[in-house]
Amino acid sequence: MNSVPESTSAAGHGRPTAGVPGSVTPFPGTGPRIAGEPGGDPAGRAAPAVQGPTPLQTLRALGSGPRGLVEAEAEVRLARTGENVLPARRPVPWPRRFLRSLRDPFTSVLLCLGLVSAVVSAWGTACVILALVAVSCVLRSAEEHRADRSTASLRELVATTATVVRRASEDASPVEREAPVADLVPGDVIRLRAGDLVPADVQLLRTDGLTVHQSALTGESAPVVKRALDVPDPALSGAGPFAQPQWCFQGSSVTSGSGTAVIVATGGETRFAATHDGRAGPRGASAFDRSVQGISWTLIRFMLLTPPLVLMANAALRGRGLETLPFAVAVAVGLTPEMLPVIVTTALARGAARLARTGGVIVKRLPALHDLGAVDVLCLDKTGTLTEDRPVVAGATDSGDLPAPDVLRWAAVGAFWTLHLAELPTADALDEAVLDAVEEYGPPDPGEVDPEAYEGVAVLPFDPVRRVATAVVTKPGRIGVHTLVTKGAVEAVLDRCALDRDERDRLLALADRKAASGLRLLAVARAERAARAGAYTPADERGLTFLGLVALRDVPDPSAAAALGVLARRGVAVKVLTGDHPGTAARICSDLALHPGGPVGADDVVTADSLDGLSDAELVSVADRATVFARCTPEHKARIVAALRAGGHTTGFLGDGVNDLAALHAADVGICPRNAVDVAREAADVVLAEKDLTAIGHAVLAGRRSSGNIATYLRITLSSNLGNVIAMLTAGLMLPFLPMLPAQVLVQNLCFDAAQLAFAFDRPAASALRRPTELRPRDFLRFITGFGLLNAAADLATFGVLALALHNASGDSGEAAFHAGWFTENLLTQALVMVLLRTGRGAAERRPGGPLRAAAAGLAVIGVVLPLTPVGPLLGMSALPPLYYLLLGSVLGLYAVGLTAARRRYERRHAPEAATLS
């Protein structure tokens, strides 16, 4: 154990000295530097010639000490340096948010069309289009701002905290307390334990078996040993900052051990901020982003082709010139689902807020809610999800497979002192199971091992790389002797024992036979060493004497079977990625009937070592077929998840430990429980109240509700808009005048857009929630083409109705009446489409909810009443004769019958696709 003295002259009293503003980073590469110290680039590529100051020099320079800062001084420094947050997490100003909304593909095209209209002096068209752009941007900005506020407030529930040492006054004793990471300042003394995120750039003061992951900064997957250095080590003088053992950087995570450190840089002054500011690549597009972009750019191509086609057709057939440009622009606008950004943001934000309110599930990234609804493969570990968190000891045997209570008692010695000395964030379930079993055995007989007779000296906690834990203990009366008790994975323990090859192979075969029956095995070994004052390291775990095996069995979670059944019925396949033995994993999965084809067999279980020889393409096939992956390392988990995504699956991963971090990043949706380690919670997209499959089922359902509303909006909007565009283009070539004036087209479009906001508040029917929701551009295009043509047929049939009703009209009055008639028919058919094409197959399911019913009714009322009001003449419309309404009712009745029949036929022929569309 390395340490710095608990008292330091003149350290920790008062404010930082002049020239040390409270954010000094006394190591190369970031922030202000102590005079005379060499620099370095933010990525750490420069190799400094010196290691930087000692812990005592750093504490003095920062005006701090091992007893921590005074609370009042910490508040002063916080006001001076600002919160310990990365620049990217700061609130986005409203003007920037508004301008960012203009980057949406549809909004950009609308803006261009409005500017073109202004250039040709079509001021009415330009004003309406620019008004649409402004309304869309304002609504989207407001909804994003509201979503960000909701997400920020939800994130506070799982905000990362750190254990900080502070004092109430100069003379008060130091007190450890949990403080938000944002409140940490340079000079704060903090405690680090396994599972913690390193909250800032720090210099270590004391350590005990500390290892950290630095992959966020260096790309190295293996943990790195860190230790405090009271004096510079000449052997490290030429090493880069990440190789220096006394420095830990923000973005790292503690994998094992513990330590005390002083913060030397926070916020934008950290090396993590310098490395990622403007140089880190953006997060890959989510499944939702890819789907919406595919649909968007297909429609944009149509929009960009529409104006020149209208101009050329009118010039060739009607001899019209640029006077038809406003009409052509209005037709292109009519094809645009300009409210898509608003609908998407509103639907997802409402779904996320509802999940947080009713299920305690926090969605940290709004598009992840859609991806939850699209998840068709969920990857998870079995412990704590399919099984209860604490296994049960089934027995203990020696190397000859004979009952051996002393093996369990030695394991209890290691478990007891590991729990008391390792400063773990949570107690290990295996250790607690061993201690519970020893209590049931009762007091040992004379000559047997007595766990209470030993005192702890040191501990090397378990980490996923070593796969063992070692406790160093001593027995009163045996002066000068330390006993090392090592327990962990069978292979890892045997590798550390003094065994010949034949004996090792025999023990491995014995362990395999026991594990194949579904037992979890904990190997136990010990060794005696001469007592010493120096720190113990993993290098001391050699030459051990094998004692035996402790067998444990998992207890299935009572709710797991029912939750797995619900997920299966909703089309979500579950795959188990575990570090356990294949037999152990297969047994619990068979007990829970996880595999839909029956018991989990050999073909359904893949060991991780067999994956190492597979190419990425081969792994895609294996990952799709297998149900259980055993003996997985963190890298294996991430690679399996990536292979599933490459195979076309939308993949979720549920994890709660440091070893799950890579897989959480690799998945479409990273999921973790609220009690997960800090680093996993920060990496996840969704945080559950508990590690419970039932909660995931609720979250998937919420994602499908939001996505179903978005899909319904797109289907109805695009099919209706396409039908109107086809009809207007056809009518424009047949009539001696424009079928609708540009202002009429845009007002009609604005009314329809306003009504469609109701889709964000709709409740999809049950049938829309049975399968994963995925927005597939090809399926959408096929749907909107068929129903768009049907809509166009209804519009063109209205020509006959108008010709019959207005046969005596002529001149301007005839044109105004025609415009009014088609305006009314368009809004009525759009209201009808909103009702009949809503998500759901049965008639009862298609019955719209309150908001949607009210919106459709309001749209119909506007269509009928607006031409009769004083606004009608201003828009170039006049009143219609009663005969028109009678004939229009017949057309609408036939259209409703045709629409219903077409939908039923579509659903029969494309049932799987209809499920994905919904």
Concise account of the structure shown:
The chain contains 30 helices and 22 strands. The model is unreliable at 1-50, 277-283, 840-846 and 912-918 (pLDDT under 50). It has 918 residues and is α/β, with parallel strands linked by helices.
Describe the structure.
The chain is of the alpha/beta class. The protein folds into 4 domains: 161-269, Calcium-transporting ATPase, cytoplasmic transduction domain A (Distorted Sandwich), CATH 2.70.150; 288-352 and 700-910, Calcium-transporting ATPase, transmembrane domain; 376-386 and 557-667, HAD superfamily/HAD-like (Rossmann fold), CATH 3.40.50; 393-553, Calcium-transporting ATPase, cytoplasmic domain N. The chain is 47% helix and 14% strand. The chain contains 30 helices and 22 strands. The strands form 3 sheets. Strands 1, 2, 3, 4, 5, 6, 7 and 8 form an 8-stranded mixed β-sheet that branches. Strands 9-22-21-20-10-17-19-18 form an 8-stranded mixed β-sheet, sandwiched between helices. The protein has a 6-stranded antiparallel β-sheet with strand order 11-16-15-14-13-12. Strand 13 and strand 14 (481-488) form a beta hairpin. Helix 10 (340-359) runs antiparallel to helix 22 (693-734), helix 22 (693-734) runs antiparallel to helix 25 (811-836) and helix 24 runs antiparallel to helix 25. The two termini are 60 Å apart. The relative contact order is 0.09. Mediates magnesium influx to the cytosol. It is found in: Cell inner membrane. The chain crosses the membrane at residues 106-139, 780-806, 818-840, 852-871, 883-902. Its main location: membrane. It comes from Streptomyces violaceoruber.
